[in-house]
Amino acid sequence: MASSATMPTAPADYVPSVQTPAKVKSRLANIDALRGFVMVLMLLDHLRETWFVNYMVADPIDAATVIPAMGFARFAVSFCAPIFVALTGMGVYLYSLNHTVQETTSYLVKRGALLIVIELVYLSPLYWGIVPQPTFWLQVIWAIGICMIALAALMRLPRPALIAFGLAIVCLHNLLDPFRMSADNPLFPLWAILYQRDVIQLPFGFVAKTTYPILPWLGVISLGYAAGAWFRPDYSAEKRNRNLLMLGFGMIAAFILLRLLNVYGDKPWFMTEGNSVRSVISFISMTKYPPSLLFLLPTLGGGALLLVWFEKIDGSMLIRTLAPFGAAPMFFYLLHLTVLRILYHSALAFYGPNNGNAYMFDNYHWVFLWYPIMLVVLYFPTVWYAGLKRRRRDIAWLKYF
Questions:
Q1: Domain boundaries, the chain
Q2: Based on the number of CB atoms within 10 Å of its own CB, is 263 exposed (0-12), middle (13-18) or buried (19 or more)?
């Protein structure tokens, strides 16, 4: 039996209450549904990347030139990474309730290392042949992997200290924006991984692109882990939902206020005279790489509100449809990117390039046609795999995918 020193302790604001199995199921189903929701949204952005590979979307997007439909779709998919990283932290907390600190640490280190390997060995080569030189794309899976390994140490902090750490990073990291480091600095690779989106030159002509600098994501995963305390099985559902509503509306209100002030948290937005649509696009176009404070406020706030709503509509067709995507997110992620690469290279081989060395659709609206088709095609294998994970808990490696 593990000693009390290795077991998780109750948070200071822990409120015991008796919950029926149905309420426990509802509490967890809304997390799966929200995770599934962001996976479904993610497909929309990856369809754009696949069929509009040479149509670059700036960070933040240029509201004066972007296709309006793409501008609004880009805002919608902005919710994906922040919510998923926060839910990763929350999931780790729930995992820790039934495991010792040592077991949770081992899981985090193994899972984090696996994600890093997947990004470098499998996901990056999927894009070779499209980009001009072999590039290791240090993207969201890489960032989550490093954050999970870091969380193995951070979770040992007292909950108030962890919250303070997460808030400090999320709220203050934009103060680092003016600081740039040149490639000849010996600390440049570390700084590029932490905060400065850049290119690291590697031996043999390879390069690494730090698409997802990890510092802000460390704050997000820490706050997600701390928020996991609200989802303990015997925590008051009423208090949890009240906390989430206050958090969600508070973050969205803070976003609107800071965005109107235009003084901190992201690059300034602008009004376009005679074009209210482009003015709105400018207002909602925030920096994702690394995620600015104003990028994180509405996306994480919206996620908190969705958690409350999904719990209220538990058992609905929407929840039943989204939950499998959230129960097997890594499987869906790898599956849909693989299918998209196969489709792209097949089209390129059959039709040949029509935009430089790439094959592209001639109209962005084709993405919206492909989107429901891909969802239906990918839904069935994802449901099968989610069921396999649920049935075969004796297969240890399934929990890592």
A1: 4-400
A2: exposed
